[in-house]
Amino acid sequence: MQFQEPLTQAKHEAEVLKKSVATFDKDRMALRNARGCLKDLKNKNETIKNEREALDKQFKSVEQQKESMYKKFEQAIAQLRSRADYKNEKLEEKLAVFEGELEKKELTFRELAQRCGLAQDQVDDICKKMEEAIEAKNSILRNLKYSLAHAIKAYNDAIRVYEAKLVEFGIPAEELGLEPLVTNTSTMPAGLVAA
Known about the structure:
This protein is mainly alpha-helical. The protein has helices at residues 4-115, 120-168. It starts with a helix and ends in a 27-residue tail after the last helix.
């Protein structure tokens, strides 16, 4: 019996080894497949790392461009602000000069009115009428400026429509020979000319 026990044990080991040998090819194939998958995953991981690095570089570049543009914007704003401040100072100086001249002229006018023997009420009435006349003239000037801008806009719109129609008919727009007038109005159609 003692002899049978090692024999049984040997048979058992032989059967385990036979099963191992039988699955050896499958296990080897599975190992090869696993190594191939691992290699693919490593390659994908490396590709993703490279793409991430490229995106990080691109992001940094875009960030630098954004910061550069922001700095340029801030500089432009600062320049515009300093120019506006300078212009405002000059305008305030001119306004102060004009106000001083106006006061001198009013004093001169009042002295002349007193020498002529006009009463204070009459002088105030004349000053009021002069201010009303000046405001009326200023209103007329504003209306004329608006009318001029309106007429220039209509003229420029008409030129654009005519040039577009000439191009539709195959005629070069330069043959019309009309140049738009310089204006500070927009080039948006104002509906003044029908197409």
